[in-house]
Write a structure and sequence with these properties.
This protein has one domain: Orthogonal Bundle (MetI-like fold). Helices cover 73% and strands 1% of the residues. The chain has 13 helices and two strands; from the N terminus they run H-E-E-H-H-H-H-H-H-H-H-H-H-H-H. The longest helix is centred in the first third of the chain and has 39 residues, at 2-40. The chain starts with a helix and ends in a 9-residue tail after the last helix.
Length: 296
């Protein structure tokens, strides 16, 4: 047995030594917090005093005695249902336009990609200024044409749609992935479709979208996960208002964790969110068999 271990370390020791910083970081920053949050979710913990074991009381309170929990979950679900399809549609459309061989193609691609790499906080602050009902540029332009713009961020009918529009603003990241997918579509399929008399729309429907479906599926999964974790824009621009219309689940979790220092409750919320994301992602994976084409 000792000889096997010596042989193992002789063969793999150098590789493990190079991997050790990542292994230590993974254990300290991923595994340990994962286990720690599971434990804290079963306690009452306010950071100041020691955790007090309460069992599943936090989960029971979440489900049966906390209407804000359900309201924030519904706000987040509604946001995901609207934002993800619109983001996919905008990304695919933009990629198709920028895939054409035109003069200045690289410049246009860069311009549309830049918003996706800007810091979210900076983007949220900028849009907050632009959408200011009194001094903002958007309402100023609307007044020039005789239209009185709404209070974009303080009207509960408009605030959620404003955050959806902000999500689409950052579509450049998924656009790049779609562009890569378009470059991977075999040209002989287009040639065969043209010989069969297929027009541009027919080629889009019968060749481009089916061959692009794995990339679309990837972006749908990432979009769903990201939508359920939406936080920054709502925190910076609306603080969850007006009347809770933009209180995303992650924002409510943050408020419970750092607003009331109810860390045990917040950890329970985090685990519920983990289950919701896992279940939703599983449903997306189950449904992909009907429309995703992995054949080349």
């Amino acid at each position: 047995m000792a000889e096997k271990w010596r042989r193992f370390w002789r063969i793999n020791g150098a590789g493990l030594a190079f991997l050790s910083p990542w292994i230590v970081g993974f254990l300290a920053l991923q595994v340990w917090p994962f286990i720690g949050s599971a434990y804290l979710s079963l306690t009452s913990y306010d950071v100041v005093s020691a955790p007090r074991w309460v069992g599943v009381e936090n989960y029971r309170t979440l489900i049966s005695d906390d209407p804000t929990f359900w309201a924030s979950l519904w706000v987040t679900l509604r946001y995901a249902i609207v934002a993800v399809p619109l983001n996919v549609a905008a990304g695919v459309a933009l990629a198709l336009l920028l895939n054409a061989e035109v003069k200045g193609q690289a410049i246009f691609r860069t311009l549309f990609y830049i918003p996706s790499i800007l810091p979210q906080v900076a983007t949220a602050v900028l849009f907050g200024w632009l959408l200011n009902p009194e001094l903002g540029l958007v309402n100023g332009i609307l007044r020039l044409v005789g239209i009185e713009g709404p209070a974009w961020l303080s009207d509960k009918a408009w605030a959620p749609w404003t955050l959806v529009a902000l999500a689409i603003w950052g579509v450049g990241g998924s656009m790049v992935i779609y562009l890569a997918g378009l470059k991977d579509v075999p040209t002989h399929l287009y040639e065969a479709a043209i010989l069969d008399g297929a027009g541009p729309l027919a080629r889009l429907r019968s060749v481009t979208l089916p061959m692009l479906s794995p990339v679309i599926f990837f972006n749908v999964v990432m979009g769903v996960i990201g939508s359920f974790q939406a936080f920054t824009e709502a925190y910076v621009m609306t603080k969850g208002g007006p009347e809770g219309s933009t209180t995303f689940y992650s924002l409510y979790l943050f408020q419970r964790a750092w607003g009331t220092l109810d860390m045990g409750y917040a950890c329970a919320m985090a685990w519920v969110l983990f289950v919701v994301i896992a279940a939703t992602t599983a449903l997306v994976f189950r449904g992909q068999k009907r429309w995703v084409n992995f054949e080349r």
